[in-house]
Design goal:
By secondary structure, this protein is α+β, with helices and mostly antiparallel strands. It has one domain (about 1-90): Lrp/AsnC effector binding domain/regulation of amino acid metabolism (RAM) domain (Alpha-Beta Plaits, 2-Layer Sandwich), CATH 3.30.70.920. It has helices at about 15-25, 50-55, 85-90; strands at about 1-10, 30-35, 40-45, 65-75.
Length: about 90
């Protein structure tokens, strides 16, 4: 499994729509709206390296409102935490 982190600059008036459309693309596991110099971060997970160009350049890059992308390919994962379980701690009765 290959993981790419895609930083997305979007038209400010279309950020929610861009986030939703990107999140619905096959291969995109998560999209985060963030503060700072970029608008959105998408996490792309694929089985083969060749699939990255198809998802990032051909699909994410062509979503209406996407102005620029910057992609980082992960070499190594250092945490295998289940984030949902971590956030749910202490919420159960």
């Amino acid at each position: 499994m290959l993981t790419a982190i895609v930083l997305i600059d979007a038209d400010v008036a279309l950020i929610p729509e861009v986030a939703q459309e990107v999140a619905e693309l096959d291969g995109v596991s998560e999209v985060y709206s963030v503060t700072g110099d970029i608008d959105l971060i998408a996490v792309v997970r694929v089985a083969q390296h060749e699939q990255l160009a198809g998802i990032i350049a051909d699909r994410i890059g062509k979503v209406e409102g996407v102005e620029r992308t910057q992609t980082y390919i992960a070499f190594q994962a250092y945490s295998q935490h289940d984030l949902e379980a971590a956030f749910a701690l202490g919420l159960e009765d």
